[in-house]
Design goal:
alpha/beta; 378 residues; 8-stranded mixed β-sheet; rod-shaped; 53% helix
């Protein structure tokens, strides 16, 4: 949107492009109206050339026009299509160039997802359409059935300048050819101060077509991201919706792949740890359970990877518990009578058992565990 002051009372803005883009959204438009009032202007002319765009942003513009204390006029210089045509009903003073057009159709959108998401989108579109019908009934004086059948019927319904006036969307047709450029300039300049005269003629020199730039950018986005079913004329809102859906789909695929990779890694780590426990490479130390000992190695696998875990376990040489090395020195009738276990020492050599924690703690721990099922705390 390009704004400039015409006189102390009057200002105008060129609103060329698509509603809802980075350049012409509802917030920017509402702020523009506030700025015009803040500068002391009381009248604003909106020079409109719009192919439509976001319904939500257009509704915000519609409401901002109705709430503004400015005396707002809209002049359709090229096209007022789709949402660009709907917002005309917010303004009482609308004129249209004799070679300009309006266009109305049903609201549309793009969505993908499950049944609930699709049903939600259908409800939203029907609510939008009901709102359009209510506003157009009030503006045109036609009944809802006629509005729906003629203008919200699934087709793009183009209206020339005469039809726009007949329908009540515009009040007056502006001739596209003036009697004299010199006379026109004189009329305009007579109402302007020196700074605004300079600003007006500097604006005439601008050759940047904002709408064309926007269409070119949309075409580039559609091509780059391979968005199907869209053209540059689909509008920024549709392109942004398609981009959002595309990236949501990619994120879902990524989440699935990450979950599968995590589950595979967890299963591999478990298998490696099971094998290490069986081989005697992972054992519970004093005051520790086998699960606690195993958890230490499990963290290595989770944080550093399966290959690192395998390398750590590969460096461990399995040890045989010392209790298994105690020889059977018994000569009695029963072989068990000669096994130097806890009971043997208590019966035959209690003094040796008493000294063992200090002199041979490893043997004492194994004898204690064999008898009581856990290591003692020394």
């Amino acid at each position: 949107m390009i704004f400039k002051s015409i006189t102390k009372k009057q200002a105008e803005v060129k609103m060329y492009g698509l509603i809802g883009g980075w350049f012409a959204n509802g917030d920017t438009f509402s702020q523009l109206l506030d700025d015009v009032e803040a500068k002391g202007h009381t009248e604003l002319l909106i020079r409109l050339h719009c192919y439509g765009g976001s319904v939500f942003e257009g509704n915000l513009m519609f409401n901002a026009i109705q709430k503004s204390s400015l005396e707002i006029s809209i002049e359709i210089e090229g096209v007022a299509a789709s949402m660009g045509c709907f917002i005309l009903s917010a303004c009482d003073n609308v004129t249209i160039a004799e070679n300009a057009f309006g266009m109305m159709h049903r609201p549309s959108g793009f969505v993908e997802g499950d049944a609930d998401q699709l049903e939600s989108q259908v409800k939203l579109l029907r609510d939008m359409e009901s709102n359009f019908v209510a506003v157009l009934v009030k503006r045109t004086g036609k009944d809802a059935a006629e509005i729906t059948s003629k203008y919200l019927n699934g087709r793009d319904n183009w209206l020339n300048a005469t039809e726009m006036v007949e329908l009540g969307l515009a009040k007056k047709i502006i001739p596209s050819i003036v009697k004299s450029i010199k006379d026109l300039d004189k009329e305009i300049v007579a109402k302007m101060d020196i700074e605004n005269v300079y600003g007006r003629y500097a604006a005439v020199l601008e050759n940047t077509n904002q709408n064309q730039k926007s269409i070119m950018n949309l075409a580039l986005i559609i091509s780059t991201f391979a968005l199907e079913g869209l053209t540059a004329e689909s509008g920024e809102a549709a392109v942004l919706a398609a981009l959002k859906n595309k990236f949501q789909g990619l994120q879902t695929q990524l989440d699935t792949m990450q979950n599968e990779a995590r589950l595979k890694a967890e299963n591999t780590i478990k298998a490696v740890l099971d094998e290490a426990v069986t081989a005697g490479k992972i054992k519970a130390q004093a005051g520790q359970t086998i699960d606690q000992a195993r958890a230490m190695y499990e963290n290595i696998g989770k944080n550093s990877g399966v290959e690192t875990l395998q390398a750590v376990l590969g460096s461990i040489v399995p040890t045989t518990p010392i209790a298994q090395h105690i020889v059977n020195e018994g000569t009695g009738a029963s072989a068990n009578a000669g096994v130097k276990n806890w009971n043997w020492y208590q019966e035959h050599d209690p003094m040796a058992l008493e000294k063992m924690p200090a002199e041979n703690p490893a043997q004492f721990k194994e004898l204690y565990k064999a008898e009581y099922g856990s290591y003692p705390v020394l």
